């Protein structure tokens, strides 16, 4: 004991430490089952002495706590001794204290980093007293650095979490609370001039917040609700203030701490304080928590969920109906407004109070929560909630997060649900209707960007409100109806006029939620839905009125701008140069001249004619997913963005789920059929098209005939019903829609076909969009009629416009909607078959086409396009039924009368080509079999058909046998009429003498049997097409001649089935075909090109392709073209620049004759050379011995220069010539 006596200042304290050490040794080693725990006190040194010398209390018998305490004691004992010495020495530097505090904190927390469960790390309170004793002495120093304070707070946090909270002592907590508040907040707690987090490092804020959290968690459940709680409530207010200030100082990188702070506040104010106590701090807590969210960017979802949970707990605690003494007010109900929605739509932070009736008041009591308090606090809370909801659900990032994370949406729904269940009457004045706006914003987040309407969310929203009692629903109904009406007539109208995408989408979502909620409340109260029908009707009228005005404004601007441009052009105003400095409707800066920029300007005549047939070959008659996607993403009105128009469509479609009676009411209100205004101006288009577009969206979700209620007559077998009464009848509204569609189609046709040169492109685009609306109406209404009614009352008038629109360019919006309309009609009544649709209505269609042919104004390029569409869909059936003969006859008459109109004639020949293609389909099997039989190799020694030596010997043997006279031989009959005095070889006569022959000398020709397997009427039709095509080969239009040559190429194999009829026709026009094959313009030896050189070159390929077919077909028959083959070669050699180029002398002569051939020879393609070579070699293989050897050798030499493909069937003679060329 002498060494302790030598220390005057610290002897007693060290004695205490020795006693403690001995006690620990005895406790943990001699009596392992005993653990002595005492409660520490934070007071003066004399109080500490008393505390350490008082008897210990036996409260626990846990081996793990003892073992853990022994381990911690071994580690921290040297540090505590050194820290105690340093604390008692006033000369100890702050750096030394910092080192010791850091070491102590690190040693205490080190085992926690290794343990998987911190809850198992518990030490005895005696050890906690031992650790805290040097800290208590250190706190007596006049100043402590912030870093040292941070370590002290960490040590206190450790002791609270791992020792004192397991045996909480209210005396200890009463003394420890002010200490933690002072260490964490400093002087700011008393002055309140600045935040406790100002100027503090993040590490200090973290340590201070953790210490306060640990202290609050240690407090018992009734710690703040006892009788003597004034000081404790003061500490609670200070700790709450500090946590909120620390919360506002955090950023997104400290979200774990933020979530912990929010969770601590939620726990404390949910179970440890009363409603009266929470009402004092409610406004400040709500304000600071919401400001934390508004000021901190990119908070994670768990943090936001924690904020919503804290707001929910505070709201229920403070405003619960059970905790307030509420009585019903005598004030009358007044209409509510939609100002809360307006606050969500405002871009600035300005807010306007919501003036609602006060239905419930708080009776006057001595409590803090009076009626005046309820009014002021709930109004302030409403503004805070709106600001929070706007930031949470309307900002782009938060909106997407609310949709993708179900926890966030569910927490918000739970928040609103708790308010309705617990605080309906207390918050009825300010908050209840605001919750509808919050749910509207949530619904908007889920339906933004044109997404499908989330019906599950609407059901969740409605269930929250209809769970109320009947009395609450009655209180809610009338203000909700008034608010919805105000929302439609003010906010929705304003959003449609401003055309702001975000505001419009929010208004539509809010209107949908409000109307759906009104329907649910009325249904729960078992009342009729008349009010909601009126609201929907008002919404439709508002949308129709605003869209009409916007569309009229747009079309008026287009017409006005077009007139101004026309007046400038007529007056020659020099300012037009600046006005015309546009490229693709984009005004260029002054330094760029639009006239100097190369661009392709489409021909106005070509653009107006649409050249249907040039694009019809690219039409896909099957509706695929791409077409559906284009329809879902497309814009018809083009007044808003694509997403906004999609939102409007979804909003309107939600109204179409009602009965047919409701649909009739809506359509009657939209179309107003009593108005009979003249259709003379483009400004009338919106009046017709906008209601039609709205009706289309209503019909998209309405019931079809098959979906309506069943007919009881179907189940009555033995009862006779009047057959004259139709079972299924369509409504008058359906006919109103059809009439409106007819008017729109007429208007669009008038404005796009009359004065097209003065029609602006934008007006044409507008008419096309509105025409698509009308076409969509026809398709949608197909499900509202029975097949008989639709076929006799609708298709008889609308089938031709549908096909006319379908004949437009495949990329046009008119074509797309015509295609979808035909698809809907065929699915509804014709088993999904367009062929059946056309065939069953062919009578109406042929009559319509005949009427167009009989009127000069009907001869438009679209006419041939419609015929082509009909042929492509069901041409085979119509050809078999002979229903197109009259139409085709009219086409030939038109060609005779208007052959100068090249576009019209060209379109007709595209139709003729399709007729030939369908004929080939009709006789495909016969053509295939015939080709297989006649394509066998035949020798030049035909008709003997000898291909081998054995066949020749067999022929010689047969000649030795006697040939019997045929049974039908008549020796008295003259089978051949011989001309007297003319040798037998000259009996046929020369071609020059044919015209001089007297027809009277000819023998009567017997009726020959029809030799072609093609029906005679169809064959004659193809033959007539071939004749007209040959006549058109002299037409000046190169495009027409190219199309004619393609048609002739398709027709020739069909005509060759009756070869004797074809040969005279081919002989008449064969020279003209040779001229086209060489790129010439005449048969004359002295000629000059009068046409554009490029057009002549373009004609060579289709002409050669036709000639190739001629020679190939001749190889399958009697080889009548054998004598023509040498003529073909001589003409090619003399007139073709390509073949003449191989003969240098002939080429020079051609160049001298026409210098443009030098250019032509350089422009020819490999395709032309390929065709020349193939035609010549095919002829050699076909006619073989009829061609002289020297001439054949010359032809093969030329073809070897032009190019020979390896897969060609050359024949034996050609191969021999090639061998000679290669080896000699």
Number of strands: 6
Helix-and-strand structural type: mainly alpha
First-to-last CA distance: 135 Å
How many H/I helices?
52
Shape, principal axes of CA atoms: elongated
Biggest sheet statistics: 2 strands, antiparallel
Q: What ranges have pLDDT less than 50 throughout 5 or more consecutive residues?
A: 1-61, 330-337, 348-362, 574-579, 596-613, 705-728, 932-940, 991-1006, 1086-1091, 1150-1163
Proportion in helices:
55-70%
Mean pLDDT: 75
**Spatial strand order of the main sheet:** 1-2
Strand content: under 5%
Radius of gyration: 50 Å
Could you walk me through the main structural features you see in this protein, from its secondary elements to its overall organization?
By secondary structure, the protein is mostly helical. It is 65% helix and 1% strand. It is built from 52 helices and 6 strands. The strands form 3 sheets. Strands 1-2 form a two-stranded antiparallel sheet. The chain is elongated, with a radius of gyration of 50 Å. The N terminus is likely disordered.
